[in-house]
Amino acid sequence: MAGLAAGKRLKSTVCNTEIMVIAAPGGEVDLTCGGAPMSADGAGNGGNVAADFAEGTTLGKRYTNEEGNLEVLCVKPGDGSLALGGVALKLKDAKKLPKTD
Amino acid sequence: MNVMMLLEMAASGFGDRVAFVDAQAGASITYQELYDAAGVAAQTLAASDAERFVMLDVTNLSIPVALFACGWAGVPYVPINYRLTDPEIDALIDRVKPAYLVGDPDRIGRWTGNDGVEVHGRDAFLGPARAGDAPEPAWSMDAEETAALLFTSGTTGTPKAAVLRHKHLVSYILGSVEFMGADEAETSLVCVPPYHVAGIAAVLSSVYSGRRVVQLANFTPETWIDLVRAEKVTTAFVVPTMLHRIVDVLEGESSANVPHLESLSFGGGKMPLPVIERAMELFPDTDFTNAYGLTETSSTVTVLGPDEHRAAAASDDPVVKHRLVSVGVPLPGIEIEIRDDDGNVLGAEEHGEVYVRGEQVSGEYEGRGSLVDENGWFPTRDAGYLDEGGFLFLEGRADDIIVRGGENMSPGEIEDVLIEHEAVFDAAIVGVPDKEWGEAVVGAVVLEPGAETEVEALQAWVKDHMRSSRVPERLEFWNELPYTETGKLLRRIVKGRLADG
Questions:
Q1: CA spacing 20 to 30 A to B31: which of B111, B133, B167, B399?
Q2: Which of the 8 DSSP states describes residue B469?
């Protein structure tokens, strides 16, 4: 997959998951959902969620890699789980902030 | 990025929840209905010749519908102060037409109109939007598109149109609000007008967190207290003048008697210490949060949270105690620096101009370009300093600093001392031209109801608390000070009246 820009929206090609990129490393990024590459329109080779990447995604949660330079937001949940270069992304803890408005 | 994405997530996550309640009209809309109405209204907007959407109304259900419809249609949302005069409104509209305008029927009925503007009453906009079938989602995710143009309050001159792009507003929400962080019972009372950046922030953060929003169109302290009790409001935002009036109405009471109100945040101006201290007594179970932000920074950039409020109120350490009047520490993703007039970065306790950096910071005005420098820093024109713990203290607008005989002084610190006097309700200090000193310190004071004192007594009070150069040469007693509706002191008017005196 080509480089990712913050704000870009991607769909899983094997489940209902949709994400928006919050931060991404430069260059080529191998971001997958359910074990299959993601695309802008969700079109792909079809197929099923791979058993190793079937934990699912949760609406409104953020996911990040170990280095912390990739961060995505789940805008539609699905059965597949997210991975970068074959390594599963982790759920990012939300910081509790006081309400300001 | 697009603000519509926030509503899309809300509608799919908790579509059946009530999103907005118009307290005056007794009408409400759920998150799914809001999403659908935004889609229908977006089609109407896209089919018109308008390049901008103008909102000329008090807060009501059409406000969130319009804000999101604009995101969906790719048309900038331009809320305008409905209290302006016709010529003032025309002057602003000339800068944004061709436009599609929705407004309060009474206000637009008294307005002569403007070529190039399609005018619709609130109900004529809202009715069809709520009746139609939502189209398939089809908004642009180009983060650079303009979401809103907000006219600054113009306390110093002609209003500037601040450009807020989708990336600024969405970054602010993602950085400060947890998706679906609110439980079903959480209710927010919004009484800031729609043309204020806090009005936009309130809509977006409530939608993303899943709160029920009760809208109060015309603030009075009595209706505010009634609504907080009747609607079991759990969270609310007020500007300092509103809290001042609320506290005054509760004079003589031992408690505000609002058991459901968990948090009360305030911002948009300087909060006098006696007001916040009295408020903390009247609302003993409520968390207080002070937020500082500007239109150009997509609302809040620093926060003094409830824990810091309590720690400051309880502390014997004067440094910690003083933090009660600070605006707190930066939000995650926001950086603050204090710089001198030459742009050098200053250390703790050194006074200068506040600079802000972060993804939510726009700093751009239509037709004037961006004030953000090559490293992303925006000069706020607010004067202030950081203490050793990184807490930010504001000292008014940099342009308001009085230079008397080569000595810089901020009007705010003198006002603070005056307001501490038992007879003083409010005070405004300005510098007026003076042959001997360059500028002379003069001021206007509003006394507490029934209180009496003399100018000499107040001058002596200031002299007891500050260096003698701070003592106002002249003080006048006024019935009230001129404020904007959102609580900003109109210093140029004070200055004009005192310079003539």
A1: B167
A2: G
Is the per-residue pLDDT at A1 higher than 60? no
Measured between alpha carbons, how far is B79 from B194 in angstroms, rounded to an integer? 6
How distant is the Cα of A88 from the closest Cα of chain B, in angstroms? 22
B337-349 per-position pLDDT tens digit: 999 989 999 999 9
Pairing type for strands B335-339 and B329-330 reads unpaired
pLDDT of amino acid B46: 95
- CATH architecture designation of domain B335-398: Roll (2.30)
Instruction: Count Cβ atoms below 10 Å from residue B433 Cβ, excluding itself.
Output: 10
Q: What is the pLDDT of residue B78?
A: 98
On the question of pLDDT at B407 being above 90, the answer is no
Residue pLDDT, tens place only, B143-158: 999 999 999 876 656 7
| H or E stretch covering A32 | strand A31-33
Q: What pLDDT does A80 receive? A: 96
- The verdict on a CB contact (< 8 Å) between B9 and A75 is yes
Q: In the numeric block, which tokens belong to residue B224?
A: 């505010």
Buried b / exposed e over B401-418, threshold 16 CB at 10 Å, is bbebeeeebbbbebbbbb
- What is the pLDDT at residue B501? 61
Give the domain extent around A74.
9-91
Residue A57: inside a domain, yes or no?
yes
Of B339, B330, B322, give the one whose Cα is nearest residue B361.
B330
Q: Does A96 touch chain B (CB under 8 A)?
A: yes
pLDDT at B212: 97
8 Å CB contact of A101 and B299: yes
- What pLDDT does A5 receive? 84
CATH topology of domain B401-500: GMP Synthetase; Chain A, domain 3 (3.30.300)
- pLDDT at residue B125 is higher than 70: yes
Helix ranges (DSSP H) in B235-392: 240-249, 273-282, 306-314, 318-322
Give the whole-angstrom CA distance, residue B239 versus residue B291: 10
Which residues touch B338 (CB under 8 Å, ≥6 apart)?
Answer: B345, B346, B350, B351, B352, B353, B354, B355, B384, B385, B386
Q: What are phi and psi of B330, to 5 degrees?
A: -65, 150
Domain-embedded: residue A23: yes
Query: Cβ of A101 and B303 within 8 Å?
Result: no
- Residue B23, pLDDT > 70, answer yes
For residue A63, pLDDT over 90 is answered with: yes
B233 and chain A: CB distance < 8 Å anywhere?
no
Q: How many CB atoms lie within 10 A of CB B480?
A: 9
Residues forming beta bridges with residue B475, ordered by sequence position: B443
